[in-house]
Amino acid sequence: MIAVFESLLSATLSAAPALVFATLGAVLSERSGVINIGVEGMMRLGAFCAAVSALWLPTPVALLVGMLAGALTAAMHALLCLKARADQVVAGMAINLVALAGVTFLLETWFQPYGTPSIAALTRHRFELLEGVPLLRALNGHTWLTPLALVLPFALHILLQRTPFGLRVRTVGERPTAAATLGIPVLRLRTLCVVAGGLFAGLGGAALSLSVLDRFEQHMPAGLGFMAVAAMVFGRWSALGAAGAALFFSAGSALRISLGSGVGGIVDAIPQGFLLALPYVLTLLVLSLQGRRTRPPAALGTPWSPETR
Amino acid sequence: MPEPGRFRRALPSILSVALALLLCLVGLAIAKGSLPLALEAYGQLFIGGLGDIGGWLQGGRITLITRPLGETAIKASLLALVGLSVAVGFRVGLFNIGAQGQMMLGALAAAVVGAQLSLPAWLHVPVCLLVACVAGALWALPAGVLKLRRGVHEVISTIMLNWIAISLIDNWLAVGPLRAAATLGASRSGTDDVQVTAHLPRLFGALSRMNFGLVIALSALVLVWFWLFRSVHGFESRVAGLAPEAAQTAGIAGERRVLSGFLVSGALAGLAGAVWVLGTEFKYPGSLGAPYGFDGIGIALIGQNHPLGVGLSALFFGLMRAGGTRLQLFGVHKSFPELVQGLALLFVAANWAWGQLLARRVRPETGAPGANGDAMRPPLPPGENRVHGAEAGVGAPNASHDDDGATGTGDRTSSPLSKAEGGER
Q1: pLDDT tens digit sequence for A75-85
Q2: Cα–Cα distance between A264 and A22 in angstroms, integer?
Q3: pLDDT classification of A288: cutoffs 50, 70, 90
């Protein structure tokens, strides 16, 4: 039984970082009042650029390239939403579509249609000390992204809830005009948050291609970006809640995979499809139960300009 | 609506598509290292969609034209139906990202009814289409109800419903209970084959694969246009989508109009699934294979959420899709048209900026942009953004109420969207 739990924990910890980072990116962007439904596309570009650059560059640098790709995509989102005042959901979906088709196109042009060649993945760390301890054993064999994914939510929480900067970000997301009256540069702050959110999403994507796998695969991130959006809503737009939801969703999919590989006898009774659908059904259920109490940032999705009253 | 504005309203879409085409041409020329090659690829793209007219004129067989046109019609009818689905959603003020899931439900329903029921042909096809519509509408229903009763934002709920559909259908039903039994020892993927009585008839026999789906798509476009722009119910639905408060004041049962509009949206997506299964696949092959639902968003927005525009953009991108397979001769992936479409959507998304740009170019000397002189375009309903602030019941002090309405630079497309933009989730 402990072995089952250990393998489950281990699978969760190695899969979770990608989702956690993407979720935090979405939280940061949306708390500043910009809908970010383009996480999927940002992750895809991040994963692709990281994997491609890892063919030539050392892997940690490739990780940075992936983050940068996410940030650049997010900058495009910011330009569309804040400068051109596009509908933010439409802009996000457009980014998803461009990333989907564009990466497929580049993949086909440069490599094979199904993915890039293998690259050197990030090193997985093992500690002799933990090897003999039950349960803690599961902490072995992960990249340094895993501890980062466990610390970063707290860091973002403190940043958003306990610093003047975070207060400004939240004000810009709730009452932009009030913020502007106080001299806070609304649009600049929103741009910053969107781009930083893209940095996180790119990191999440890079985690997929550099840590979870050792190459970019055609279907990446296979809906993980949308799951990040779900986790953000599930966690009520708070950094800790959203990261918790992301961990929960990751555990759910780890459970499904380990059940599928025959660790329990339950898989015959419950079809895999149900387990796959579980996080989404749960999100819907929670949303419908919470109803109007789930309150997003008040100014979410509304364009703002200095002439707004 | 005043007639003169029509072309002007279509201009951002046309320019966006042109810009996307140009950008992709440059990209292709750089990737291949030669501009003539890229131009030739573009030529082949359109020949692949329109047919090799030159070859036919020089005495080639008629199938040189009919085959490509048939492929174009197949792709275009699917795109038109999904695009129409999303457009109807926008018109009643809801962003239907769930067309993908609704289409899957419709496709599966059509495949099951088409395979399991034995009916005469004149009855079998309509029954399949009807069941698919109902299935699609049923998959849209939770999102609509959750939006109206519990204030759950439809973008989130339809994304969830998409993934629930994918999990349940592609990972369970299509590979489990509904999977076709192995024949002659060879296992088959997807569901049982649809009976011949449920196949959509081909319009030109052996000349092309063009099938009755084209007729279905065209009639759907006309019917939706008539409903939205020539019927009281449709008018009320649009009002309810544009300005729920105005609808309420005018005594329109706004919520019911929005819900019924959203069900129509789901039904259209389901219909697309049925046309796909009964027209070309003849079974549910295990997955939808392409993000049709997302394509629908692109088609709807590039078509400015108008049935005519949706039809035209579906035709254009259907043509490119059909020709896309020809690009593989040049070593270009057939996803190239999707890239063009994505970029075009990206540019169309900047609708407001296009409005500014065009207004500046056409009337450089109007002085303050706030002047309400521009009679060419229908003004945006004032207070568009106020709507959801009030609806959310959080008493946001209309922080978002900008002066779009006064400048008249927004156009009709942007208005139903802005309600979908957020506010409540």
Answers
A1: 999 999 998 88
A2: 31
A3: confident
pLDDT band at B417 (very low <50, low <70, confident <90, very high): very low
* Closest CB to A98 among B162, B167, B342: B342
Read off the tokens for A118.
């293998």
The per-residue pLDDT for range B70-106, each reduced to its tens digit, is 889 999 999 999 999 999 999 999 999 999 999 999 9
| First-residue to last-residue Cα distance in chain B | 33
Peptide bond just before A221 cis, omega within 30 deg: yes
Instruction: Quote the CA–CA distance of B76 and B90 in Å, as a whole number.
Output: 20
Q: What is the helix, strand, coil percentage profile of chain A, to 5? A: 70, 0, 25
The number of angstroms, rounded, from the C-alpha of B176 to the middle of its chain's C-alpha atoms is: 30
Task: Give the SS3 label for residue B211.
Answer: strand
pLDDT band at A260 (very low <50, low <70, confident <90, very high): low
Question: Which residue type occupies B374?
Answer: D
- The question of ipTM being above 0.90 is answered as no
- Per residue in B393-415, pLDDT (tens digit) is 333 333 333 333 333 333 433 43
B338 touches chain A (CB under 8 A): yes
pTM of the model: 0.85
pLDDT exceeds 80 at position B422: no
| Residue A176 near chain B (CB below 8 Å) | yes
- Residue pairs spanning A and B at CB distance below 8 A: 221
Q: B208: which residues sit within 8 A by CB, 6+ positions away?
A: B63, B66, B67, B69, B70, B71, B73, B202
Beta bridge partners of A285: none
List chain B residues with CB under 8 Å of A283.
156, 160
| C-beta of residue B262 within 8 angstroms of C-beta of residue B144 | yes
Contact (CB<8Å) B152/A176:
no
Q: Is A218 on the interface with B (CB under 8 A)?
A: no
Taking CA–CA distances from B24, the nearest residue in chain A reads A102
3-state secondary structure of A213: coil
Closest by Cβ to A86, choosing from B338, B351, B385: B351
- pLDDT on residue B236: 93
